[in-house]
Amino acid sequence: MLKISGKNSEVGLSRQGIIILILILAGGFGVYLVVQNQRKTDLKVTYSTAGATRQIPVTASGDEFKPNTFQIGHLEPIALMVTAVDKDYVLEIPEGGIHAALPQGQATEVQIGSLGLGKFEFICSQQCRGTIEVIPLKDEDDERKN
Q: What's the pLDDT band for 43 if we cut at 50, 70, 90?
């Protein structure tokens, strides 16, 4: 038995009581760690690109892309699903280092990486032009205001 004495009182804990106290403290610390880890996970999800890649259908025909302008969220995972209708094309996004051959009659998936914020031109080998506008996500707008 462990005895703790103060000025006016004395408390005694048996071995079993000490073990129970240690387990309670360890359990409380474990719960604390889980909660802290969950908070960190929530923050990561808030600022990540978790979720499925958004696919944007685009056609290349008559030396034009349709649509030729669209918006995406900053760090949003997207893929252009480009179908070359009338001939072979080559799609380029110079700022993104993207160069993709688009064979006639086939849908070609073109993954778009992180472009940063702003407007970026995409072009083809036959003078097609288009613009991808990368806009802040809602969380990023809120973060800038603070």
A: very low
The CATH number of the structural domain formed by 54-145 is 2.60.40.420
Cis before 67 (ω within 30): yes
Please give the angle made by the CA atoms of 117, 129 and 54, to the nearest 5 degrees: 50
Per residue in 111-123, is it b (16+ CB within 10 Å) or e — as a string? Answer: ebeebeeeebebe
Strand partners, 73: 135
The 8-class DSSP code of residue 7 comes to: S
Query: How many helices (H) and strands (E) are present in the chain, helices listed first?
Result: 2, 11
The domain locations on the chain are 2-47, 54-145
The answer to pTM > 0.70 is no
- In the chain, the largest separation of any two C-alpha atoms, in whole Å, equals 96
